[in-house]
Amino acid sequence: MKRVDFRLRLLLAAVLPSLLMAATLGVFWWNWTQQTLESALRERVTATARQLATAAEIPLFSGDVQSLSGMLDSIGGGDADLLGVGITDPRGVVLVKSGEAHGFTGTPPLSLTWRQEHDDPRWHLVLPVVPTPIYIDDMIRPGAASAADDPLVPLGYVVLDVSLQRLDSVRNNMLILGAVVITAAILLSIILMIRLARGVIRPLSRIIKGVEAMGKGELDARIENIQGEVFQPLANVINQMAEGVKLTQIEMQQRIDAATLELRQAKSRAEQEARIDSLTGLCNRRAFMERASDELLRARRYGHPLAVAMIDIDFFKRINDQWGHAIGDQVLMAFADILKKSMRAVDIIARIGGEEFVLMMTETPIEEAMQVAERIRKDVEAASLQLGDTRLQWTASFGITILYGDDYSVSTALVRADKALYRAKDAGRNRVEVDLQDVTTD
Fold first, then answer.
1. Fewer CB in a 10 Å sphere around the end CB: N or C, the chain?
2. What is the pTM of this model?
3. Fold classification of 285-434 (topology level)
């Protein structure tokens, strides 16, 4: 780890909680300031509207517009947040106004109503002016409906347009002040953390540097000039560990080399056993399919002929039943030796079943494949095992095909060769049959 990276991480670990707390306080300060200022402005403007509505009740009832105008002049100039103040009749028609006050349209509101249009930097307040009922107990007869039960019809409405500019200005100033205070606190905490971290960063940096050197193989490296009750014992322990590692390095490396060699050998043996038939030493089905697939791709690319032969030892079950499986294994090994001696190194020979074998002859047209199969058949027919006074002989049947241009897998060719093999068995065994489907010869 680089020293700069370590210092940065240690600083972040010390300062990050302060930053998170500052961010939380900032969000709280923003919401609290917004809500508090808006609430205070609403309460103040509502109080002004209620005061004006109470004062305008008698002039509205008597139709004294001049008194209403005088009231508006005194109120409109006393509040910097009011863009305009107006008083309307019950239908919303403005009777008097001061500033930018407007009436309203639609159904008149019957209670205090705040409105704000989308993206409009002002509020619109409408407050109905209703007559204050006066009750005289002597005039209320028992059982008669109280006048308070009758709905009061507004005499008019007080309309106030409130500017939000000063609210925004005060809020921004408070937010700036809060940001300045929080930033100053963060900077102060960073300075303090840096001063406190120096006593930790320097010894830790030396320890980390020494450990990194040891990790890179520099076992002679040691951690020196470490002061402090905490870091000095740690450095001593690390130095002792380095001495122990240095003394055992050669022994450990030898053990690792020996274990690596053993693993490689075991892996090689496992791969060999997974692809080689243990009895005959030939490829098994898995190895044959892998190598044959590669040969098929190569033959398709370069246009070379590719022949496949399926071989089955005739009456092999009878040999096992009569002579036992040990003799049967000797027959299989002798047959495999004949195949090895008869085929080229580039050809693929595999045992894919009990007494079933397969050959893949590269760059071999069908005519040459037939000649090779016939030669092998004769060699098998002439071979024998001497069992005491008895001479054991056996034969084999062959089915041959070639891979066509539309063969995209070896399995399709094996199916055709297997069909030709069964024709050879049906025709009396000890013979070679060819699958000539769509094959043309010159």
1. C
2. 0.43
3. Alpha-Beta Plaits (3.30.70)
